[in-house]
Specification:
Elements: E1 6-11, H1 16-32, E2 36-37, H2 40-46, H3 53-59, E3 60-67, H4 69-79, E4 86-90, H5 105-113, E5 117-131, E6 134-141, E7 144-148, E8 156-162, E9 165-172, E10 174-178, H6 186-189, E11 201-207, E12 217-220, E13 225-229, E14 236-240, E15 244-248, E16 253-269, H7 274-282
Parallel strand pairs: 1-2, 1-3, 3-4
Antiparallel strand pairs: 5-6, 5-16, 7-10, 7-14, 8-9, 8-13, 10-11, 11-12, 13-16, 14-15
């Protein structure tokens, strides 16, 4: 742990269970001499003093996130560009990012304070949208950037280049560009592979492609994908981590790479590996057959 001693606390202020958990940790911290700091929005939900966003980012040694993976993704955006390791306590459903249990939250935080953890570096996608040669959007994603159609039930044409070479023209409902972290999110439901977060690559997976030959593709950490909507299709949306949306127009150029400068650090407690998480969440090996005991 670095020299900073304060623990940042972020949570889903719309979820009663998260507010209750935050109160529990806040009171526990006061009893144990452990200092939690909250940004203004979260502090207001608990009616306690908060600190300004910039000060929070400077002083937090690590951050505890209470909620589901959606809350974790928002917390990651909040800390982009700052070396603040994140640890999520899952109050949602599946939980591939928020992996901690509410039942062991205090013990887990104590273990982190005592240095009983390792840091996992998570790659980010960097996306740039150019329109007529002018940069109109620049965004980062921990999970994925997704191009999808609007409300009309029609397929879209997406020309895809890797570097300067044309790869294909996807005729599909959309296209997912994913990090390894996002490989267990939307990309998985589109037939993409599961990729451990330490593997430096980018996954490209078409959504409901209208040809049997369209398949997910893995690109290297140095590849640049360029996606250009063709034809006159309107109402295209570029979604950032499933939470923020941007309009795409025919002829726009979306350039996507793995960011070489910014990453997200997540905390992995000793004795809990990524492969343990896969077995638990995907129920690999759980076939309902007894191992032999009664």
């Amino acid at each position: 742990m670095n020299e900073k001693k304060k623990i940042g606390l972020l949570f889903n202020t719309q979820k009663p269970a998260a507010i209750e958990m935050a109160c529990r940790l806040w009171n526990w911290g006061r009893e144990e001499g452990i200092s939690f700091i909250l940004p203004p929005h979260e502090a207001a939900a608990l009616s306690i003093p908060g600190v300004e966003d910039d000060l929070w980012r400077r002083e937090a040694a690590f951050a505890v996130i209470l909620g589901g993976d959606g809350t974790f993704l928002r917390a990651a955006r909040y800390t982009f560009g700052h070396q603040i390791p994140l640890y999520g306590i899952n109050l949602g459903r599946l939980g591939f990012l928020a992996i901690g249990s509410p039942d062991s939250a205090e013990n887990d935080i104590r273990a982190i304070i005592n240095g009983e953890y390792s840091i996992q570096r998570r790659h980010l996608l960097k996306g740039q949208v150019r329109r007529g040669g002018r940069l109109v959007h620049e965004l980062h994603a921990l999970n994925d950037l997704v191009i999808s159609k609007g409300n009309l039930a029609r397929v879209i044409d997406l020309e895809v280049k890797v570097g300067n070479e044309v790869l294909t023209l996807f005729l599909a409902d959309g296209l997912i560009l994913s990090t390894p972290t996002g490989s267990t999110a939307y990309a998985l439901s589109a037939g993409g592979p599961i990729v451990p977060p330490h593997v430096p690559c980018m996954i490209m997976a078409p959504i409901c492609a209208h040809t049997l030959y369209a398949r997910p593709v893995i690109l290297s950490e140095t590849d640049m994908a360029l996606v250009i909507p063709k034809g006159d299709t309107r109402s295209l949306i570029l979604t950032q981590d499933g939470q923020l949306g941007y309009e795409l127009l025919p002829g726009d150029e979306l350039q996507v790479t793995l960011d070489r400068e910014i990453s997200v650090e997540t905390i992995q407690l000793n004795g809990r590996s990524y492969y343990d998480l896969l077995r638990e969440k995907l129920r690999w090996g759980f076939n309902g057959i007894s191992d032999g005991g009664d």
